[in-house]
């Protein structure tokens, strides 16, 4: 629905009928009626619902000239009428397909080659043919020892997906003091819109309570919340009524808060791809942003591996008397 709202803003109130949502979970009969009545020129929806309505003959995709997949992850299409929408609209030879992904793992390369002819890779700094990949490159291995599955192309793709305006820091803290370190970090950087990432849903509520007790307006966001609750929290966060949003991986992909100026990793991301998705929540549209990873001393090797893989500098820091202080590397 976020994409629909943005398109409606561009079209203006008088042309809102020319874009139609086809998302799963909504009333299908009403969606089909809107298609018949308004004859929209832009359809935004989930693959399964688009496929269902197309197979039923209510959405004619043979004349579709442009198809865009905004969150490409390279999943294999399922069989039957609920197959991936890309297979439904691929019959027109001259159709242009646009696949958008924060990173370019092997599965995305495979999907691009199967859905398009001679695909081009458009990155922030260049446009080039999509080179073949002989084997699936794995993400960064964050455990000690070699990482035989890593691949240079994967590393470059992940690195180039990071906004160039970001500053990356890491701060040492004991496990029991990590949430308080978040508080000191927020005040030291004077951040007004903050996303805090933790790995486990059960930790979120406790972290929110601790931050609220110290005077920060904070809320949790995770998949166990109802649709209305999630929507309300996001609206308040975007309006600035909530300063700190504590979440798990749910918000790492697709969450668009243009004025977010700080991302804090209380728990380490599992690999470089997850780090890129988290970090990408800030520094958008050329704005400055900071990413602070809070870790224990035994976890510093993970930060060093991320630094090597991503090709960015992680500065060691601490928060003293309300200020961020850069520490010299030992």
From TrEMBL:
InterPro entries: DEAD_box_RNA_helicases, Helicase_C-like, P-loop_NTPase
Keyword ATP-binding: yes
Keywords: ATP-binding, Helicase, Hydrolase, Nucleotide-binding
A single GO molecular function term of this UniProt record: ATP binding
Record's catalysed reaction(s): ATP + H2O = ADP + phosphate + H(+)
Region annotation Disordered: where it falls in the sequence: 67-88, 128-158
Protein's UniProt keywords contain ATP-binding: yes
Protein EC: 3.6.4.13
Pfam families attached to this UniProt entry: Helicase_C
Domain Helicase C-terminal: 181-325
Protein name: RNA helicase
Lineage: Eukaryota, Viridiplantae, Streptophyta, Embryophyta, Tracheophyta
């Amino acid at each position: 629905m976020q994409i629909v709202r943005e398109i409606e803003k561009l079209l203006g109130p008088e042309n809102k009928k020319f874009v139609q949502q086809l998302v799963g979970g909504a009333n299908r009969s009403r969606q089909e009626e809107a298609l018949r009545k308004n004859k929209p020129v832009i359809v935004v929806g989930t693959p399964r619902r688009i496929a269902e309505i197309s197979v039923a003959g209510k959405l004619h995709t043979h004349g579709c000239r442009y198809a865009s997949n905004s969150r490409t992850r390279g999943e294999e299409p399922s069989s039957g009428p609920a197959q991936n929408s890309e297979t439904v609209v691929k019959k027109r030879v001259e159709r242009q397909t646009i696949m958008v992904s924060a990173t370019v793992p092997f599965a995305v390369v495979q999907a691009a080659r199967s859905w398009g002819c001679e695909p081009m890779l458009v990155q922030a700094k260049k446009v080039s043919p999509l080179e073949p990949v002989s084997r699936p490159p794995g993400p960064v291995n964050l455990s000690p020892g070699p990482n035989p599955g890593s691949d240079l192309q994967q590393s470059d793709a992940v690195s180039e997906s990071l906004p160039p305006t970001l500053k990356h820091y890491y701060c040492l803290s004991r496990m029991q003091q990590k949430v308080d370190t978040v508080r000191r970090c927020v005040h030291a950087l004077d951040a007004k819109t903050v996303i805090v990432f933790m790995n486990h849903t059960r930790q979120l509520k406790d972290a929110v309570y601790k931050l609220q007790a110290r005077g920060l307006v904070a809320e949790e966001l995770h998949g166990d919340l109802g649709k209305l609750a999630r929507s309300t929290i996001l609206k308040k966060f975007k309006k600035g009524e909530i300063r700190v949003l504590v979440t798990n991986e749910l918000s790492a992909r697709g969450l668009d808060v243009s004025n977010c100026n700080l991302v804090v990793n209380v728990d380490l991301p599992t690999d470089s791809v997850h780090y890129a998705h988290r970090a990408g929540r800030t520094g958008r549209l050329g704005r400055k942003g900071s990413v602070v990873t809070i870790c224990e001393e035994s976890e510093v090797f993970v930060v060093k591996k991320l630094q090597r893989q991503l090709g960015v500098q992680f500065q060691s820091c601490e928060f003293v008397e309300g200020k961020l202080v850069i520490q010299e590397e030992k």
